[in-house]
């Protein structure tokens, strides 16, 4: 059980340095990136130079080998700065494709892709979703035909974060009727193209794209792990992404609550600050309870993930399902408590609202989280075992 503060002095030093970095290198540019629908490559380079991408990765590949709480620290600071669009780009680089290369890649792949990506010299993306296959990963139809000394790739991907910026993409492809595999594809590969998608509701700073593969030749050395094991690798790789989504939602909600608290104490109506109305105080109280519940389940999930790795799937899935829905209620209420100005861009609530709306869709929809949980809960033996272990 998690009863103590999980953060050490080292984590708090990291927090200070991330906070300073955000103030200097991110906040002044966010408006411009939001308008451009993309951030600068420079911010990746600087994040890498400061070692922020590598906190949980091995020192051998330019990481610093800290525990997963360090990734939580960075995520909390990004969420508190209300820059979810940029954060998504940075996480889609670090915690989607790179754990796969770290866990399953060859030495050559780690030196060629993992280390430069952690240094911020190369940008990475993960390409799974296709126009006809999102939740249903097994429905992927982009093919990689084994041609002896290389793979021949044909097909397309959609909604890929960092799609136009990426120097390489970890790609889920069909290598047989019943099997999927993961390949690393270089941007320079002939036949590979990317078209930006600019009509998103939110997350405007993050680059989203459609990818196309027309007779792309990829050398055999680009295969990650074993051919035909891709589905299993993909399913195993979701936990970090879902945890960070849970932490992001929790701390955007926490930020929104703080804004609402301050605004309701300052805003006058009917001759008094609106926080003096009981209905507003009670709303703030409900929001605070929700934020605390989100924080508790997220931290519990992180602690269990550190202990059990991908075997913590049940609590991680619960955290993702719960926080993504609940944080939206808090942000929505915070916007409401701001009245008309909440609907304007000036107070940041509008951006937080449209950015956070992605959280019930990305990294696996709420319905898919419930599907996973439903199956685990109906597996009585597993469920009782997990309940006992948590008591
Ligand atoms: C901004 C953005 C960035 C993204 N970045 C990436 C990325 O970097 N890489 C990547 O690979 N993908 C990315 N995605 C894709 C994202 O992971 C998918 O959109 C998501 O998994 C849902 O898939 P879908 O859009 O095909 O929806 P669908 O799977 O078509 O779902 C439609 C609806 O049906 C429901 N549904 C589906 N199956 C079931 C079921 N079995 N039971 C009950 N309900 C069900 C869903 O919950 C949903 O409500 C991104 C998406 C967005 C919007």
So what's the CATH class of the largest domain?
Answer: Mainly Alpha
Distance between the termini: 7 Å
Query: Which percent band covers the strand fraction?
Result: 15-25%
Return the domain count.
3
User: How does CATH name the architecture of the largest domain?
Assistant: Up-down Bundle
Poorly predicted regions are none
Radius of gyration computed on alpha carbons: 21 Å
In this structure, how is the largest beta sheet organized? Answer: 4 strands, mixed
Structural class: alpha+beta
H/E order of the elements? HHHHHHHEEEEEEEEHHEEHHHHH
CATH topology of the largest domain: Butyryl-CoA Dehydrogenase, subunit A, domain 3
Mean pLDDT: 96
Question: Can you describe what's shown?
Answer:
Helix content is 51%, strand content 15%. It is an alpha+beta fold and 391 residues long. It folds into three domains: 9-118, Acyl-CoA dehydrogenase/oxidase, N-terminal domain (Butyryl-Coa Dehydrogenase, subunit A, domain 1); 124-229, Butyryl-CoA Dehydrogenase, subunit A, domain 2 (Beta Barrel), CATH 2.40.110; 237-390, Butyryl-CoA Dehydrogenase, subunit A, domain 3. The model has no long low-confidence stretch (mean pLDDT 96). Residues 92, 125-129, 134-135, 159-161, 200, 203, 208, 358, 361-362, 364-365, 367-368, 371 line the site of flavin-adenine dinucleotide (FAD).
């Amino acid at each position: 059980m998690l009863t103590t503060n999980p953060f050490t002095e080292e984590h708090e030093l990291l927090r200070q340095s991330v906070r300073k970095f955000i103030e200097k290198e991110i906040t002044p540019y966010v408006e411009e990136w939001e308008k451009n629908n993309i951030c600068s490559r420079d911010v990746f380079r600087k994040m890498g130079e400061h070692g922020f991408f590598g906190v949980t990765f091995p020192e051998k590949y330019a990481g610093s080998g800290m525990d997963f709480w360090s990734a939580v620290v960075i995520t909390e600071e990004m969420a508190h700065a209300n820059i979810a669009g940029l954060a998504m780009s940075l996480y889609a680089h670090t915690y989607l494709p790179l754990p796969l290369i770290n866990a399953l890649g060859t030495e050559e792949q780690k030196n060629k892709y993992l280390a430069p990506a952690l240094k911020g010299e190369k940008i990475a993306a993960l390409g799974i979703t296709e126009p006809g296959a999102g939740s249903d990963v097994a429905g992927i139809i982009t093919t990689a035909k084994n041609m002896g000394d290389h793979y021949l790739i044909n097909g397309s991907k959609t909604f890929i974060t960092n799609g136009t910026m990426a120097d390489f993409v970890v790609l889920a492809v069909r290598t047989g009727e019943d099997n999927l595999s993961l390949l690393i594809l270089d941007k320079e590969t002939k036949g590979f193209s990317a078209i930006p998608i600019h009509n998103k509701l939110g997350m405007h700073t993050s680059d989203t794209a459609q990818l196309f593969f027309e007779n792309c030749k990829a050398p055999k050395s680009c295969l990650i792990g074993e051919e035909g094991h891709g589905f299993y690798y993909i399913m195993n790789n979701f936990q970090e992404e879902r945890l960070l989504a849970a932490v992001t939602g929790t701390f955007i909600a926490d930020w929104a609550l703080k804004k609402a608290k301050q605004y309701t104490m300052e805003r006058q109506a009917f001759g008094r600050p609106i926080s003096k109305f009981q209905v507003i105080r009670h709303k703030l109280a409900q929001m605070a309870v929700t934020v605390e519940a989100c924080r508790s389940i997220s931290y519990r999930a992180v602690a269990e993930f550190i202990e059990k790795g991908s075997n913590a799937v049940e609590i991680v899935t619960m955290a993702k399902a719960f926080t993504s829905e609940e944080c939206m209620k808090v942000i929505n209420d915070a916007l409401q408590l701001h009245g008309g100005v909440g609907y304007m861009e000036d107070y940041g609530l509008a951006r937080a609202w449209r950015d956070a709306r992605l959280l019930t869709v990305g990294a696996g929809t709420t319905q898919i989280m419930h599907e996973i949980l439903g199956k685990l809960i109906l597996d009585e033996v597993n469920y009782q075992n997990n309940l006992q272990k948590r008591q």
